[in-house]
Specification:
Chain lengths: 223, 223
DNA sequence: CTTGAATATGAGTAAAATCATGATCGCGGA
DNA sequence: TCCGCGATCATGATTTTACTCATATTCAAG
């Protein structure tokens, strides 16, 4: 099960959050200030699946810890912000946080955010990680089990689009709109052609994951 | 696709937000003050999937609109707050808002929040009690006790419709009107066929909850 | 309270309509 | 010329509709 680190200087809050997270099956790790949080993260980096950071903490504050962590890892981060603080939410996103929760917060909502974030990042593993399909946007290259697959522009864009939201269904119109452009006029079934070619090129993986949703469109199925 | 209502008295802001939302495939509805917002919501209640409310508006202010909407519906609500305002976030949560964004905001962030919120609410368990049946509109997926049930379009739409108002009876005509379209011509008892297949596919749950109201139509029984 | 006519619904089947696929072809730009 | 792209078409698959007949329900008359 996933391990979550929570950093907050208030012991009560830490306990509250930990209790709820443990309740739904997560392991937790606690830090009571920014310095400890970062130290702990460095030590357990490979084990930690998600980080929750309070902003106002002794030592490094939450934003700073977040930036430091970001320098090392893409682990998902949720920030806790006290309502009275003059906080600049934007800064949070700039520092690389994935989500934030304002105090006072309902633990249930926090748990839901944690779950949503884990779900999202775990299914995005293909994009960064060591799974079977990797995207290298810079090089415009796709690799399946390390082997490069030569995709044409349209194929590449369609695959990329579907990969942006694994599980979500895209209608042919949506794909045409976002890849071809709003002003595209032409046969809607063109999408089918490209999907077919993608499936061929991606072989087994393509057949397994590129799903047709009858009467709706296509989606990339999560596994 | 989801429809989103945005209420703000500044035309520029409305346009900005609408453009971004449309860009990622949402439909939008605009209101320029609190009164119009509430009126519009009442009228299109069933179609609106999410509401974005500015706080400072002529007529009813954002908090008030939110409360009024909450009296009718659980639709997700995002509040827009000017950062300079002395605002009490708690009031926002008390009035039932699900999230808020402070101005000036980046449209991208707003879009992300919208998506996060829709994801959260749309895949949430439908009926308060047991968590056995879940709808994921994005993925066009229905799960019963976690296991996916493959439904055809019509089946899916009928189930969704009935689920919108558990306990309420829908006549065959109403279902035909809202799912097939008012101009449908054909056998009214087609509905029966689909209900029958739904019951089969949903097994025990279907037989228990999909009730026939003799002489009237069908309903989804609450438990 | 029972019966039976009238009506409504369920189950099953088969036909019809719709949709997706994969193969193929021609166009046009690199 | 080659290659990416869009279009078309035959084919098969899936979904939707229509229809039949058995069963269930209602309601009023006996």
């Amino acid at each position: 099960m996933s391990k979550i680190m929570i950093a907050d200087d208030e012991q009560k809050i830490r306990k509250l959050v930990c209790d709820f997270l443990k309740n739904v099956g997560y392991e937790t790790l606690e830090a009571e200030d920014g310095d400890e949080a970062f130290a702990l993260f460095q030590k357990h980096e490979d084990d930690i699946d998600l980080v929750i950071l309070d902003i106002m903490m002794p030592g490094l504050n939450g934003w700073e810890v977040c930036k430091e962590i970001r320098a090392l890892s893409d682990v998902p981060v949720i920030m806790l912000t006290a309502r009275s603080e003059e906080f600049d939410e934007l800064l949070g996103y700039e520092s690389g946080a994935d989500d934030y929760v304002t105090k006072p917060f309902s633990p249930t909502i926090l748990v839901k955010k944690v779950e949503a974030l884990l779900r999202r990042t775990k299914s995005a593993a293909y994009l960064g990680g060591e799974k079977d399909l990797t995207f290298n946007h810079e090089a415009h290259e796709v690799r399946l089990n390390g082997q490069e697959i030569e995709l044409t522009l349209k194929e590449y864009n369609i695959l990329k689009k579907l990969l942006e939201n694994p599980g979500r269904v895209y209608s042919r119109e949506q794909l045409l709109d976002s890849i071809w452009g709003y002003d595209y006029v032409g046969d809607i079934r063109t999408v089918d052609s490209h999907i077919a070619r993608l499936r061929t090129k991606l072989g087994d993986w393509g057949n397994r994951r590129l799903k047709t949703v009858y009467g709706i469109g296509y989606k990339l199925e999560e596994e």
